[in-house]
Amino acid sequence: MQQVPATGQEGCVLYSDGRKTGTVPRQVPELSGLAASQRHPGIFWGHNDSNNAFELFALDETGAVKATLTLTGADPRDIEDVAVGPCEPGQKATCVFLADTGDNFERRKEVRLFRVTEPESIANATLPVEALPFTYADGPHDTESLIIDARSGRIAVLTKTRASLGDLYVVEGLKQGGSGSATKLGTLRVPEDVDRLSTSASLHPSGERLLVRTYTRVWEVRKPGAKRLEDLVGAQVVEVPGASQAQAEAITFLQDGRGYLLGSEFTGEPLVRVDCR
């Protein structure tokens, strides 16, 4: 793969090839999402797919489990991704958001995000979550990618579809006991539509880059000077280094945005880190 240099924006100009840093631990055999902690350097939040205990794991890049958070207050159906960002727009406090948005047959009338404040220390704990339900303005969708803009606190999801890399929806009006609404911003497409079925995404701290993972490749959406999520629609989309993994369902930028970590379902699968060249 010949990389296209990224110029005029924060982050790597070119990426190195990925290197194995560890393996998926036995506690997370269906690793479906990763997100770099914003409070604890070197820590990544990870979770299992559906039909597992409601838990959040603090991992390092080797796959070592540093803490297990047992979550209470909700009954998840199909958690597909995780992201970290402001608990509320304008707040400095950061929260972990889990996307209970999986809907293979597109039948769920309402889906949810779960929100929990990032803990002050990395230690085993039992924590309550806040359930934030929402609906799509145009009917149900299957979604496995959660996106949070750290600058504004805005939240978006990217659909999993065979028609494109995905439709980008901004989620607004979230609150406990209420119902937010997801409104389509536009469609992301790769050159010549050669790939689709997005399984995870991660927004760069600058907001100018968006990583999107599929089962076979990793794509970066680039828009120098992007001020809001809408600016990513119609932006340049280029392939960047990926990894050979059995069930490629997790990706996150590193805390400083100078690279990213790739994860997969199945215990023993490699965790792969990609850094600046």
What's the short version?
0% of the residues lie in helices and 46% in strands. It has no helices and 21 strands. The chain has strands at 19-23, 31-36, 44-48, 55-59, 65-72, 81-86, 94-100, 111-117, 125-128, 130-136, 143-148, 155-159, 166-172, 180-188, 198-203, 209-214, 218-222, 236-240, 248-253, 259-264, 270-275.
Structure overview:
- This protein has 277 residues and is mainly β.
- 45% of the residues are buried.
- An eight-stranded mixed β-sheet has the order 6-7-8-10-14-13-12-11, with no helix packed on it. A five-stranded mixed β-sheet has the order 2-3-4-5-9, with no helix packed on it. A four-stranded antiparallel β-sheet has the order 1-21-20-19, with no helix packed on it.
Give the structural class.
mainly beta
Determine the N-to-C terminus distance: 14 Å
What is the number of beta strands? 21
Note the overall shape.
Answer: globular
Strand content: over 45%
User: Helix and strand string, N-terminal first?
Assistant: EEEEEEEEEEEEEEEEEEEEE
Radius of gyration of CA atoms, rounded to a whole number: 17 Å
What are the low-pLDDT stretches, counting only 5+ consecutive residues below 50? none
The helix content is under 10%
What topology, given as strand order, has the largest sheet?
A: 6-7-8-10-14-13-12-11
Largest sheet, strands/sense/barrel? 8 strands, mixed
Q: Give average pLDDT, whole number.
A: 97
State the helix count.
0
